[in-house]
Amino acid sequence: MPYNPDRPRRSSLRLKGYDYTQPGAYFVTLCTKNRECLFGQIVGGIVKLNEYGRIVAQSWQWLEQQYSYVELDTWVVMPNHLHGIIIITDTASNIKRKPLGRLVGAFKTVSAKKINQLRQTPGYPVWQRDFYDRINRNDRSLEITRQYITENPLKWYEDSENPDRIQEIQFDQIPF
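Below the sequence we write its predicted structure tokens.
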């Protein structure tokens, strides 16, 4: 992409100096452009994916099929984001591994192309420019992350990513 001085620069969300090709369990969150609820809805704490959401789920699973050193752990497609744990293994030690950002980029490209083909909007952005990650450094961290992902649909009504979330009204904010 050519340099555009009018485009705002973002600082990297990655841990400076960390080698994201090394084996490990990485928790990632990817959000849709403008947090648009594009992939379905949550009904009674259960994710109901639409066709776009099913494309995202299939594209996520494609990562594991495409790259022998990638294992997908717990993951969920939400209406406007995806949470997942990508495990980069050391079983394919003679293969040059892509860094986490390149793996996520491949997923975003594959899913966006398929969604845009379906809705006839070639080149239209599906995902926000970056993604969030956290390195799970021990079993306890990994278990907490798995629980968070699993429970995410149950907590959608209060999720900050939910544009229709229930917000608590402070008593002192009620006009009398």
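The helical segments are 51-66, 100-119, 139-151.
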